[in-house]
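Please go through this protein, sequence plus structure tokens, and consider how the sequence yields the tokens. Keep your notes short.
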Amino acid sequence: MKELFAEAVIVRFMVIATGCVAIVAGMHAIASILNPIFVAILVAVVLDIPRSLLIRRGMSSGAALGVTILGTLVVALFLVFFVGNTAINFRASFQANQEQFQAQLQEMGETLSRFGIEADDIQASTQSDQTNLFGLVRYAVSGVVNLLSSAFFILVYAIFILIEVSVFPAKLNEAFKPSEPAYRYLDTVTKNLRSFLVATTQVALITGIGVGIGLWLLGVKFALLWGFVAFLMNYVPYIGSILAAIPAVIMAFIQFGPSTTLLLVIGMYLLVNIIVNNTIYPRMMSQGTDLSMFVVLASMLFWGWVLGPIGLILSVPITAVIKISLESYAGSRWLAVMLGAGPSTETQSKDVPAA
């Protein structure tokens, strides 16, 4: 009997694993179709916040939805025309910037040689396909361009999803009774996901605006583009803001070389990261969707491979949805704990015996 049970468990595991592999392979094959839909879902969930706020202020549901959609159109037009135009201008000057980057490296190498430091290996590594730092800038900008090129479809999807979100509570009440486990599960997942996205968007927005203004004041080219990159990459906690700094620092190096301005750009990013990670980000962690640093890194690599550059931005939200779903069900809560950053302070205090 035990052998049959063990075989059943193994067969079940193999079936589930095979299904997961098939789903991931399918997602990888149709990533160009899924990416706008995933981004639209994030946009719709975030846009539901001002819609709900307008309703609480006394506006009718239809009017609140109309105002939210109108505001979304204005923001979308701004992003497409201003950020998109900046990204296109950068791509047009890519070859010149790359040549200037190599020239600055050569000049820095000559300066280091005067102090007896051989910089040939550093310059050779930056020209390699595997370690070319300027290739990271191209990768980041291509991701932004791909995202903005799908702006029309994302906007259409987001509007329809937003309409669906506005009637979702009523449909949930009609489909399930509030006392049923399925209702409680879906309600918990929806509320936790919304809290996570709101907190993450607040952090990303503050960081993006701060970085954009700081770079503009320092005179770094394409400051609006790097601020938008910082906004997107801050959906990846811990290391997202660090990765977002690389393109702007390289651009400052191209413009000013190893100078005081370059140090100010690096210092500005460090200051923003310290403020975000020590004062603002802990607020997001309190939403119960914190992920361990290893899980964040692994999810970036995995979803980046599955979905491409946009997968780097979507990696943590997707993984957070999985974690929220797991911890909302008693049978899989242990797996959600393993994905998390560790037991909460409250849990640890309960485990410590009284003196």
Notes: The chain has one domain: 34-341. Confidence is low (pLDDT under 50) at residues 345-355. The chain has 15 helices and no strands.
